[in-house]
Specification:
- The structure is a homodimer.
- By secondary structure, chain A is of the alpha/beta class.
- The first copy, chain A, has two domains: 198 residues, Quinone Oxidoreductase, Chain A, domain 1 (Alpha-Beta Complex), CATH 3.90.180; 135 residues, NAD(P)-binding Rossmann-like Domain (Rossmann fold, 3-Layer(aba) Sandwich), CATH 3.40.50.
- Helices cover 30% and strands 26% of the residues of chain A.
- Chain A has twelve helices and 19 strands.
- In chain A, the strands form four sheets. In chain A, strands 3, 5, 6, 9, 10, 18 and 19 form a seven-stranded mixed β-sheet that branches. Chain A has a six-stranded parallel β-sheet with strand order 13-12-11-14-15-17, sandwiched between helices. In chain A, strands 2-1-4 form a three-stranded antiparallel β-sheet, covered by helices on one side.
- In chain A, helix 9 links the parallel strand 14 and strand 15.
- In chain A, helix 5 crosses helix 6, helix 6 packs parallel to helix 7 and helix 8 runs parallel beside helix 9.
- Chain A starts with a strand and ends with a strand.
- At the A-B interface, strand 15, strand 16, helix 10 and strand 17 of A face strand 15, strand 16, helix 10 and strand 17 of B.
- Chains A, B: InterPro entries: ADH-like_C (IPR013149), ADH-like_N (IPR013154), ADH_Zn_CS (IPR002328), D-isomer_DH_CS1 (IPR029752), GroES-like_sf (IPR011032), NAD(P)-bd_dom_sf (IPR036291).
- Chains A, B: Keywords: Metal-binding, Oxidoreductase, Zinc.
- Chains A, B: It comes from Actinomadura logoneensis.
- Chains A, B: Its cofactor is Zn(2+).
Chain lengths: 340, 340
């Protein structure tokens, strides 16, 4: 089969890779209908995160089950499925508490590489959620978004305790931040402020429910947010970048007793304990337990009540993956969908 | 009046200070019945936190109202009162959300110095809680504990989302940690593990409801806690020290999705973002909003259902404050009560 590999910083290739096969009786093999490039794929692409190439890439996917191992009972060949970017058994104590991305048997799909024609999904019963039938083509991007970027934005909003009557701020106008806006709207937020300097992203944020835009960053942005909120800061802040600056901006944007939901994969972040202490905020986040939210998100998409697929503003054949990475790196695209 | 001052690291004096008087119409003057030395007073005493002496000391207090300003309506001369270590109006949006220590008009009592015969309490209506009558002498230490150390341990437990069926770990066996144990027991924890190397503190922890003791610290202590909890870690961890080591021990002791409640005043702490991210824990804490809990805590003490005053294992006249500090610094005492 054909699949994407990262040979080194800035060097994306599409190569022949061995067809996946069932290894464990809990595995499923899927034919990938659509995959995509994640903001977190840009960390190794940019060389910020070390990688030893050629490394298979991709951890987001929707597809059709081709084959299942002997112990798989909840999905069957022919099912259209969405899965999380972490395989999880969905039965351990951590999964049952809703933290499937930290399942005691968790396996990252990134190691498997779903930017490919086929993929082996471990722990298929715990990981995959079948849709009610074969989806219409127009909702495939949205179902794909549920696999990570929507689930991650959703978790950011849940971790930030977004709810009715609250003012929410979103740090980061990438796909996760934008879908954090969508989640905040669905979860009943009264006011949703996005920090964004890009007109196209501001526009999509408004479509998803943002009520205000702040163009300024850092402490200047924080000061403007405080002005909007009677000097107090937001009740809930979604951090969707993962840098020192974005994390501090999120903490400083939150009122005492408020909640920061951080879902940007942290790189080079060190949170000063004394500032955190006196901020009085709640901090929660990490790799989103997408599986917790998948059944609900699939339903919302199936019923066309949300349209997270709009974050894909570039669709390319798998063979053109290199251009898909480049466009995101250069911010020409919010998010690239790849068709194997 | 007589009052304690810190002249410099290790140099505690008891000197003549000006009698406090009503400055704002929202002030009250109290005659201090009992005050005490806080673990956080040891930071400047040890020179870890800079101070410019001579600085008035003390922020915990119970006493009898002597005089009130013209706008004070909820307490009156003759009332026995307990107050938080932060004065708060108890009416602003932050107070109403339960974060009185971060009230928009918050004033730290530490700047006033309650280790003295009298003290001016700002925002008396919002800060002070009157007891149902004059307390018997035996519960005065417990009421004094409510002013900070009990309220802080209680907040640590609440911030760590302690509740029925949960396993709780407590990092720190000082007075706050010990009262974190008491709070965890009252809040229904199933199992309470205290990290402690001191026999006397282990004993008091057991009296307060600890079910297990771990003598080891750091990663060795974490490994033992994980062994006790099926490899997962505790649901709730109370951090009651404020060092880098204690904070990391707390985070590492918590299972994914679990809660760290940190109440040790952070000194020199920097939390690595990547480790925090992948830990999947909730972090919450800071200066305890003691005022939120005071009515409940005063009731529990008044009815003799809890006995937090046991943490005072040394009682001295105010004039002997220097020895009170020394005894805590050298760990000869858990906590020193001072009688003006």
């Amino acid at each position: 089969m054909r699949g994407v590999v990262l040979n080194g910083p800035g060097d994306v290739g599409v190569v022949d890779r061995e067809d996946p096969r069932i290894v464990e009786p809990t595995d499923a093999i899927i034919k990938v209908t659509a995959a995509c490039v994640c903001g977190s794929d840009l960390w190794p692409y940019r060389g910020v995160q070390k990688s030893t190439g050629p490394a298979p890439m991709g951890h987001e996917y929707v597809g059709v089950v081709e084959q299942v191992g002997g112990q798989v009972t909840r999905v069957k060949p022919g099912d259209f499925v969405v899965g999380s970017f972490f395989a999880s058994d969905d039965t351990c104590e951590i999964c049952r508490a809703g933290y499937q991305s930290r399942c005691v048997n968790a396996q990252p799909l990134g190691a498997i590489g779903t930017q490919a024609q086929y993929a082996r999904i471990p722990l298929a019963d715990g990981t995959l959620v079948a849709t009610p039938g074969m989806p219409d083509a127009d909702i495939v991007p949205s179902l794909l978004a549920a696999s990570d970027v929507l689930g991650t934005g959703w978790f950011g909003a849940v971790a930030a305790e977004v709810g009715p009557g609250k003012t929410v701020a979103v740090v980061g106008d990438g796909a996760v931040g934008l879908l954090g806006v969508l989640a905040a709207r669905r979860l009943g937020a009264e006011r949703i402020v996005i920090f964004s300097r890009h007109a196209d992203r501001q526009k999509l944020a408004a479509e998803y429910g943002a009520t205000d835009v702040i163009v300024e960053r850092g402490d200047e942005g924080v000061a403007l947010l405080k002005e909007m909120t009677g000097g107090l800061g937001a009740h809930s802040v979604i951090e969707a970048v993962g840098t020192q600056e974005s994390m501090m901006q999120a903490i400083r944007s939150t009122r005492p007793g408020g909640h920061v939901g951080y879902v940007g994969v942290a790189h080079g972040v060190a949170i000063p304990g004394d500032e955190l202490f006196f901020s009085g905020v709640h901090l929660h986040g990490g790799p989103a337990p997408v599986r917790r939210f998948l059944p609900e998100l699939v339903d919302l998409i199936w019923d066309r009540r949300i349209d997270p697929g709009k974050v894909f503003d570039l669709t390319l054949p798998l063979e053109d993956a290199a251009e898909g990475y480049r466009a995101m790196d250069e911010r020409r695209a919010i998010k690239t969908l790849l068709i194997p």
